[in-house]
Design goal:
Layout: H1 5-13, H2 20-32, H3 51-65, H4 71-76, H5 80-96, E1 102-106, E2 114-118, H6 129-134, E3 140-144, H7 159-173, E4 178-184, H8 186-200, E5 204-205, E6 208-211, H9 240-252, H10 260-277, E7 287-292, H11 299-303, E8 311-316, H12 321-324, H13 326-341
Helix pairs in contact: 2-5, 7-8
Protein name: Putative thioesterase
InterPro entries: AB_hydrolase_fold (IPR029058), ACP-like_sf (IPR036736), PKS_PP-bd (IPR020806), PP-bd_ACP (IPR009081), Ppantetheine_attach_site (IPR006162), Thioesterase (IPR001031)
GO molecular function, one term: phosphopantetheine binding
C-alpha cells in the first residue's frame, strides 16, 4: 500500500515544534511557503520549497542569527528538527570558539583602502555582506562588533570602551595610513568614537559616512530612547519580574549563550543601554549622515556635535535597509566610495 505523504505531513504538523529555534524556523518556513502548517519531521523541499527560497532564507539567517549556512546544510539536515539542531550546533561551536570580533568580508588588494564597518547593537558581523559586495573589489572590508554577541567574551559596558578595543583591532590590520570608517545605527556612534580616538593620536581619518545613527539619550534627552527598528521592544513597561530577568541576562550576556531570539534581544538591550549612556562631544571632522525616514531626522541634534562640513542625506525608508536591501546597500556603497574612500589618498 503506497504511503500517503499528505497524511504523513499532517501527522508531523500535529506535533508542535520543540526548541525556540524549531519554532522560529517553522514560522520562517511557513511564511516562505504560503502559510502551510510545518511540523518537526517535515522537509522544506517536500513542502514545496525551491532552491531560490532556500538561498533567500539562508540570507535572512546570516543577518538575523549570525550563522553562515549553505544550501548543502539543508540537504544534509533535511527535516525541521534536524536543521534547527544543526543551526543550534553551529551557533554553539561559534560561541565557544576563540575568534576575533573583527572579520574580513572582502580581501581587497594590497594597494587598495581598507574600510572598517561597525555593526549596531544586536546586529551580526555578517550584516555588512551586501555592502561589501557592492564596493569595488580592491577595497578590503572588515566588520566589527561588540564582545559577547557571537563569541564568548566579557562585553564592554560603554561605547568608549568598545571603541578603544576596536581601534586596537583596526591597528592590528592597518598600522598607519588613512583610516576609513563607517557604521550603522549605534555602530555609527562607535565608529565616530573610533575616529575621535584615532585623531587624538595624530592619525589621519577620512571623512565619515554614518548610516542612520541616533543621538544618544544622554546627549539629547528630548530624543526618545527607543528605536523604530524594534517597535515591539518599545512597548509598555514590562512587569518588575521580567525587568529583573532582562537585567540578569544582560549581565550574563557574553558568558552564557541564550537561545537565538533571546541572544539577539539581550545583545540589543545591552547595546541600547551603553548607547543611551554615551555622551557626545563636539567633533570637528567632515561627516555624512545617511538617514532613513523610519528614524526621526536628528539633523538638528547632530549639528550640536558636528562641524559645518556635516551633510545629511536621505538614503532609504527603513532603518535596516542599508543592511537588508541590496539596492540601498549599493547606494550606501556609492556614498561611501565618493565621500570616504575617494576623499583622500589611501596609500599606506
Amino acid at each position: 500500500m503506497p504511503l500517503d505523504r499528505r497524511v504523513l505531513r499532517q501527522a508531523s504538523a500535529d506535533r508542535p515544534a520543540g526548541s525556540t529555534t524549531e519554532q522560529l524556523l517553522a514560522r520562517r518556513w511557513s511564511r516562505a511557503l504560503g502559510g502551510v502548517e510545518v511540523g518537526p519531521d517535515d522537509t522544506f523541499y517536500d513542502l514545496g520549497g525551491s532552491s531560490l527560497q532556500v538561498v533567500e532564507m539562508l540570507d535572512e539567517f546570516r543577518y538575523d542569527w549570525a550563522v553562515a549556512l549553505a544550501p548543502a546544510d539543508l540537504v544534509e539536515h533535511p527535516t525541521l528538527r534536524a536543521f534547527a539542531a544543526h543551526i543550534d550546533d553551529v551557533r554553539t561551536r561559534g560561541f565557544r570558539a576563540r575568534t576575533s570580533t573583527t572579520i574580513r568580508l572582502q580581501e581587497g588588494s594590497p594597494t587598495g583602502p581598507a574600510l572598517f564597518c561597525v555593526a549596531g547593537a544586536g546586529a551580526s558581523t555578517l550584516s555588512f555582506v551586501r555592502l561589501a559586495a557592492a564596493l569595488e573589489p580592491d577595497v578590503g572590508v572588515y566588520s566589527l562588533h561588540g564582545r559577547g554577541q557571537e563569541t564568548r567574551g566579557i562585553p564592554e559596558l560603554t561605547i568608549t570602551g568598545q571603541a578603544r578595543r576596536q581601534v586596537r583591532e583596526i591597528r592590528k590590520i592597518q598600522a598607519d595610513g588613512v583610516y576609513h570608517l563607517t557604521g550603522h545605527s549605534s555602530g555609527a556612534v562607535v565608529a565616530l568614537e573610533c575616529a575621535r580616538l584615532l585623531r587624538a593620536t595624530g592619525a589621519q581619518v577620512a571623512p565619515l559616512v554614518l548610516m542612520d545613527p541616533r543621538v544618544p539619550a544622554r546627549s539629547a534627552p528630548a530624543v526618545p530612547s527607543t528605536t523604530p527598528a524594534a517597535p515591539a521592544r518599545a512597548a509598555a513597561r514590562p512587569p518588575v519580574r521580567e525587568r529583573l530577568l532582562t537585567h540578569a541576562r544582560v549581565l550574563a550576556c557574553g558568558i552564557v549563550q541564550f537561545d537565538v531570539k533571546t541572544q539577539q534581544d539581550i545583545t540589543w538591550e545591552r547595546g541600547r543601554r551603553s548607547h543611551d549612556r554615551h555622551r557626545l562631544w563636539p567633533f570637528d571632522h567632515p561627516i555624512t549622515i545617511a538617514f532613513s525616514t523610519e528614524y526621526t531626522d536628528h539633523s538638528d541634534q547632530w549639528r550640536r556635535f558636528t562641524c559645518a562640513q556635516t551633510d545629511f542625506v536621505k538614503i532609504c525608508e527603513r532603518h535596516n535597509d542599508p543592511l537588508r536591501d541590496t539596492f540601498v546597500a549599493t547606494l550606501c556603497a556609492d556614498l561611501i566610495t565618493e565621500r570616504t574612500l575617494d576623499s583622500l589618498s589611501h596609500t599606506p
